[in-house]
Amino acid sequence: NTGSGTISRYKVDRSTAEITLAGSFPSAPAPTDLEFSRDGRFLYSLTPDQNGVASPGINGFFFNRRDGSLTRLFGVNGLPTSVDGLVVR
């Protein structure tokens, strides 16, 4: 949620395909790209500085598969202002 600086989590009911909002977690301002690690344990969020408000960076979260919660682990900032995408391995 770029405007609110949050990351939303949704639940999908596999039998009905119903999607419901399960909660939101605070993130750095204006997250744009999100990607999970290959094993699904970590979520990375890119926060470019398109408005000149903060230093562009990437935030890392641990994803708890049992309850769907996110725990912020680290952040890296000071990326070039031209950063505009995220690729995770």
Could you characterize the architecture of this molecule?
The protein has strands at residues 6-12, 19-26, 33-36, 42-47, 57-63, 70-77. With 89 residues, it is mainly beta. It has a 4-stranded antiparallel β-sheet with strand order 3-4-5-6, with no helix packed on it. A hairpin with a 6-residue loop joins β5 (57-63) and β6. It is globular and about 45 Å long.
SSE layout and pairing:
Blueprint: E1 6-12, E2 19-26, E3 33-36, E4 42-47, E5 57-63, E6 70-77
Antiparallel strand pairs: 1-2, 3-4, 4-5, 5-6
Question: What form results from the Cα inertia axes?
Answer: globular
Q: What is the string of helix and strand elements?
A: EEEEEE
Structural class call reads mainly beta
Rg over CA atoms, rounded to whole Å, is 14 Å
| Quaternary form | single chain
Q: Report the biggest beta sheet as strand number plus sense, adding barrel if it closes.
A: 4 strands, antiparallel
Number of strands: 6
Discrete helix count: 0
Average pLDDT over all residues: 82
End-to-end C-alpha gap: 23 Å
Task: Estimate what percentage of residues fall within beta strands.
Answer: 35-45%
Pick out the low-confidence regions: none
Percentage of residues assigned to helices: under 10%
- With strands numbered from the N-terminus, the spatial order across the biggest sheet is 3-4-5-6
Describe the structure concisely for a colleague:
The chain is mainly β and 89 residues long.
